[in-house]
Amino acid sequence: MKIPVMEVFGPTIQGEGMVIGRKTMFVRTAGCDFRCSWCDSKFTWDGTAKDDIRMMTAEDIMNELKAVGGDCFDHVTISGGNPALIKGLSSLVTLLHAEGCEVALETQGSKFQDWMTDINQLTLSPKPPSSGMVHNLAVLDSIINQVNKERISLKVVVFDDADYAFARTIHQRYPELKFYLQVGNPYLDETVSNHTEKLLERYEELIDRVMDDHQMNSVFVTPQLHTLLWSNKKGV
Amino acid sequence: MKIPVMEVFGPTIQGEGMVIGRKTMFVRTAGCDFRCSWCDSKFTWDGTAKDDIRMMTAEDIMNELKAVGGDCFDHVTISGGNPALIKGLSSLVTLLHAEGCEVALETQGSKFQDWMTDINQLTLSPKPPSSGMVHNLAVLDSIINQVNKERISLKVVVFDDADYAFARTIHQRYPELKFYLQVGNPYLDETVSNHTEKLLERYEELIDRVMDDHQMNSVFVTPQLHTLLWSNKKGV
């Protein structure tokens, strides 16, 4: 079964979430069921990069990972778009494990696949109101109930007050799961000036808010390290 | 048994290591068996802040944590100095757990204490050559052999080539442990300009180096988030 691949790149660091800082390769799949207003990878679903999509087998992807990353990786992050749309990723996850790699997955949590139970670090990032999307939490419940909780984290991006309220709701719904609040990046223009400074200001505001909130104690508050380093550059 | 306390502050984020981003309180103990050249908390051992040291019981510390942090915490990080010098921390760790808090500890790993087996996140940071210290790895071995490996991480600060070589040695000695390379901060002057930018440049250099090194695959490469945000400010 072939997999629609948009990008294969790395090794680089995972810039966010439960394995922030981890040396990893990225496989970015094409296609998404969401259309988030502030999506930083719109090219995976808006048609602008449709000529870059390649239909690849798990073996094709493994070969490309080795061609790009050499022997400098033992961890692969599958991101999108929404890779959870792709049933055929089962073969890739199996092959990566056979090759000695850990596998992380990034998805909003709108769809379950059997192979999710094999993912080493599963990040579920339900989308807050500012995205323009409405999340079906029953689906999120269903995923969480089927996967080893030690391997899951929740990540909510926060741009504004309504997003913060949403983050609280999610944390209270699943208090036993590792929970990450991630500062939103509204500056998606490649040419934005003082990007790092602006993001750190927003990050500090989010920290201040969480520190004063006794309903948000067992949480992590994180930036996107890659954005602090490389702004909106692709392929890093 | 009284504990020499230098600072109690928070809640803030843990800026580094295995629980980077975690909302936490800090208890900083006084005294250290090391004298690292680039120590960012020299006041804990160089005598300049000796009038700030308070001898406190576990209950005193718990009361102060509540006075400072209110009900806005469920995680406490014990740092130093080297808190592993203090036998009496046993009572604090027990009390924090009884109060429903997780407890993290930061130490170089030069001394074992029985209470280390109760720490939820134990960060051992053997000091590289640029510190001017020589680490007794037999002691580090002994600590690691007595503590649940799931709860340990190793963290090595890297300033230069020799430090990087040391980091490699440590990672190879304990390949089963979570391993963090942390970019060194040589700019300890409060008034340094463009601190964040300079640190991010050094961080990027370290990332580049690790990404090209096939002997450093199963690793994390991290900055100090608090330093990116707040430079060398104390108490955050």
UniProtKB/TrEMBL annotation, chains A, B:
<dbReference type="GO" id="GO:1904047">
    <property type="term" value="F:S-adenosyl-L-methionine binding"/>
</dbReference>
<feature type="binding site">
    <location>
        <begin position="13"/>
        <end position="15"/>
    </location>
    <ligand>
        <name>substrate</name>
    </ligand>
</feature>
<keyword id="KW-0411">Iron-sulfur</keyword>
<keyword id="KW-0479">Metal-binding</keyword>
<dbReference type="InterPro" id="IPR058240">
    <property type="entry name" value="rSAM_sf"/>
</dbReference>
<feature type="binding site">
    <location>
        <position position="39"/>
    </location>
    <ligand>
        <name>[4Fe-4S] cluster</name>
    </ligand>
</feature>
<feature type="binding site">
    <location>
        <begin position="38"/>
        <end position="40"/>
    </location>
    <ligand>
        <name>S-adenosyl-L-methionine</name>
    </ligand>
</feature>
<comment type="subunit">
    <text>Homodimer.</text>
</comment>
<dbReference type="GO" id="GO:0051539">
    <property type="term" value="F:4 iron, 4 sulfur cluster binding"/>
</dbReference>
<dbReference type="Pfam" id="PF04055">
    <property type="entry name" value="Radical_SAM"/>
</dbReference>
<keyword id="KW-0671">Queuosine biosynthesis</keyword>
<comment type="pathway">
    <text>Purine metabolism; 7-cyano-7-deazaguanine biosynthesis.</text>
</comment>
<keyword id="KW-0460">Magnesium</keyword>
<feature type="binding site">
    <location>
        <position position="28"/>
    </location>
    <ligand>
        <name>substrate</name>
    </ligand>
</feature>
<dbReference type="GO" id="GO:0000287">
    <property type="term" value="F:magnesium ion binding"/>
</dbReference>
<dbReference type="InterPro" id="IPR007197">
    <property type="entry name" value="rSAM"/>
</dbReference>
<keyword id="KW-0456">Lyase</keyword>
<feature type="binding site">
    <location>
        <position position="81"/>
    </location>
    <ligand>
        <name>S-adenosyl-L-methionine</name>
    </ligand>
</feature>
<feature type="binding site">
    <location>
        <position position="79"/>
    </location>
    <ligand>
        <name>substrate</name>
    </ligand>
</feature>
<comment type="function">
    <text>Catalyzes the complex heterocyclic radical-mediated conversion of 6-carboxy-5,6,7,8-tetrahydropterin (CPH4) to 7-carboxy-7-deazaguanine (CDG), a step common to the biosynthetic pathways of all 7-deazapurine-containing compounds.</text>
</comment>
<dbReference type="InterPro" id="IPR013785">
    <property type="entry name" value="Aldolase_TIM"/>
</dbReference>
<feature type="binding site">
    <location>
        <position position="41"/>
    </location>
    <ligand>
        <name>Mg(2+)</name>
    </ligand>
</feature>
<comment type="similarity">
    <text>Belongs to the radical SAM superfamily. 7-carboxy-7-deazaguanine synthase family.</text>
</comment>
<feature type="domain" description="Radical SAM core">
    <location>
        <begin position="19"/>
        <end position="217"/>
    </location>
</feature>
<dbReference type="GO" id="GO:0016840">
    <property type="term" value="F:carbon-nitrogen lyase activity"/>
</dbReference>
<keyword id="KW-0949">S-adenosyl-L-methionine</keyword>
<feature type="binding site">
    <location>
        <position position="32"/>
    </location>
    <ligand>
        <name>[4Fe-4S] cluster</name>
    </ligand>
</feature>
<keyword id="KW-0004">4Fe-4S</keyword>
<dbReference type="GO" id="GO:0008616">
    <property type="term" value="P:tRNA queuosine(34) biosynthetic process"/>
</dbReference>
<feature type="binding site">
    <location>
        <position position="36"/>
    </location>
    <ligand>
        <name>[4Fe-4S] cluster</name>
    </ligand>
</feature>
<dbReference type="InterPro" id="IPR017742">
    <property type="entry name" value="Deazaguanine_synth"/>
</dbReference>
<protein>
    <recommendedName>
        <fullName>7-carboxy-7-deazaguanine synthase</fullName>
        <ecNumber>4.3.99.3</ecNumber>
    </recommendedName>
</protein>
<dbReference type="InterPro" id="IPR024924">
    <property type="entry name" value="7-CO-7-deazaguanine_synth-like"/>
</dbReference>
<feature type="binding site">
    <location>
        <begin position="125"/>
        <end position="127"/>
    </location>
    <ligand>
        <name>S-adenosyl-L-methionine</name>
    </ligand>
</feature>
<keyword id="KW-0408">Iron</keyword>
